[in-house]
């Protein structure tokens, strides 16, 4: 619902001076309207189809306000949210971004004819929104941690549903804004991204994503975490931690490269989190049982595929999950690592620390039509199984649609 005179990008509209009170009244009305609508989960088909600057700008402009409005109401549905510092910050982040987006609109009416230069100001708005939302997952995780040490403000199952809905919406909006920036960069002749991405990319989607290579990159990233740690004991782990990656095609050959259409950074985040959990468990197991050293307990990553799906197994020898903890590991209230909050804010991964990583990783997998399962072998270790569907970006029938919505969940 566009309001003439308030948009920065309406080329033929005169500037209108509006009082702060009237502006706030307008935003409240817009918020009520958008929050009342039901949103559908995005499909990879919609992302791939938005392959030009004009198309992706229109998709972002259409979809994101609904999701931000829903998140604002989602926070307000929590009793006493105003007394929780992190929830107040989250509320302000979403309200500021919702307001900024509703006071802007991509110029023109022919979506496919827009160029990168036409969208210069709108791109800066999207860039501003992305920067503002960087600490969202961290703030939510900190709110969870604080509330977990006080009286429960929500029953376990209801809380899981609330957090799932919040984070699914985060996935969809982050996907949209990331795709917008990738498409704009690709079409910007002055951008290095157009040379770096190559013709295999459609925005953030890599049509020839190599899961084996991504697993290797994730393994190196985890080893670097230990190498760059301040504790000397952690630095020693980096030299001894063994992660082996083996890829097998549907023919069973390790020489054949597996490639499929996917969003590489999301696959990297999920695999990195799984390897990190395995590494932590393996290190702890070595402390408890010194008979087998770290090099004797390699983490084995196996990547295989057939014509319909990609499967990644990450097997460790970290002793397995303690009795009674198998279900808790999927809870946002459970964590084996308390990463310092400031370090979390500065982390490059949206899955790092605070116990949010594993359940959020499962949401990422599910959102794009896959699944993440853990098989506990008591006294030995854990096998994590990540299944991802092959898709054909050119075929609507082959594109998975998420089965989880990001509208407001009951509280």
Automatic annotation (TrEMBL):
What are the record's GO terms for cellular component?
mitochondrial matrix
Q: Which residues cross the membrane?
A: none
Q: Where is the Histidine kinase domain?
A: 267-392
State where the protein is found.
Mitochondrion matrix
Keyword 4Fe-4S assigned: no
Reaction(s) catalysed by this chain, per the record, are: L-seryl-[pyruvate dehydrogenase E1 alpha subunit] + ATP = O-phospho-L-seryl-[pyruvate dehydrogenase E1 alpha subunit] + ADP + H(+)
The Gene Ontology biological process terms listed for this entry are: regulation of glucose metabolic process
Family, as annotated: Belongs to the PDK/BCKDK protein kinase family.
Q: Which protein, by its recorded name, is this?
A: Protein-serine/threonine kinase
């Amino acid at each position: 619902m566009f309001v003439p005179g308030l948009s920065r990008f309406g080329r033929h509209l005169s500037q209108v001076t509006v009082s702060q009170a009237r502006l706030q009244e307008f935003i409240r009305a817009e918020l009520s309207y958008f929050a009342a609508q039901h949103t559908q989960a995005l499909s990879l088909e919609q992302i791939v189809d938005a392959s030009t600057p004009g198309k992706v700008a229109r998709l972002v402009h259409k979809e994101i306000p609904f999701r931000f409005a829903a998140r604002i109401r989602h926070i307000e549905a929590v009793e006493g949210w105003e007394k929780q510092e992190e929830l107040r910050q989250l509320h302000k982040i979403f309200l500021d971004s919702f307001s900024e987006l509703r006071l802007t609109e991509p110029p023109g009416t022919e979506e496919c004819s827009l160029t990168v230069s036409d969208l210069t100001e709108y791109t800066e708005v999207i860039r501003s929104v992305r920067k503002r939302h960087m600490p969202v997952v961290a703030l939510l995780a900190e709110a969870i941690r604080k509330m977990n040490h006080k009286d429960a403000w929500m029953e376990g199952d209801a809380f899981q549903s609330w957090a799932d809905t919040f984070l699914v919406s985060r996935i969809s909006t982050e996907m949209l804004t990331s795709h917008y920036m990738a498409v704009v960069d690709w079409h910007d002749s002055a951008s290095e991204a157009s040379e770096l991405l190559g013709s295999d990319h459609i925005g953030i989607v890599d049509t020839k994503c190599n899961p084996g290579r991504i697993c290797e990159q994730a393994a190196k990233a985890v080893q670097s975490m230990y190498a760059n740690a301040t504790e000397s004991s952690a630095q020693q782990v980096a030299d001894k931690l063994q992660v082996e990656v083996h890829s097998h095609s549907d023919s069973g050959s390790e020489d054949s490269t597996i490639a499929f259409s996917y969003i590489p950074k999301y696959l990297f985040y999920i695999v990195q989190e799984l390897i990190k959990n395995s590494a932590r468990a393996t290190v702890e197991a070595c402390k408890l049982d010194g008979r087998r050293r770290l090099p004797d307990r390699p983490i084995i990553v196996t990547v295989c595929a057939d014509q319909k799906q990609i499967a990644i197994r990450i097997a460790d020898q970290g002793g397995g999950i303690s009795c009674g903890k198998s279900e808790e590991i999927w809870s946002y209230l459970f964590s084996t690592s308390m990463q310092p909050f400031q370090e979390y804010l500065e982390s490059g991964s949206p899955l790092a620390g605070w116990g949010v990583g594993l359940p959020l990783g499962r949401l990422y997998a599910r959102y794009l039509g896959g699944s993440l399962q853990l098989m506990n072998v008591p006294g030995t270790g854990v096998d994590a199984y990540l299944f991802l569907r092959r898709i054909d970006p050119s075929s609507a029938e082959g594109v998975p649609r998420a089965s989880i919505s990001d509208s407001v969940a009951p509280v």
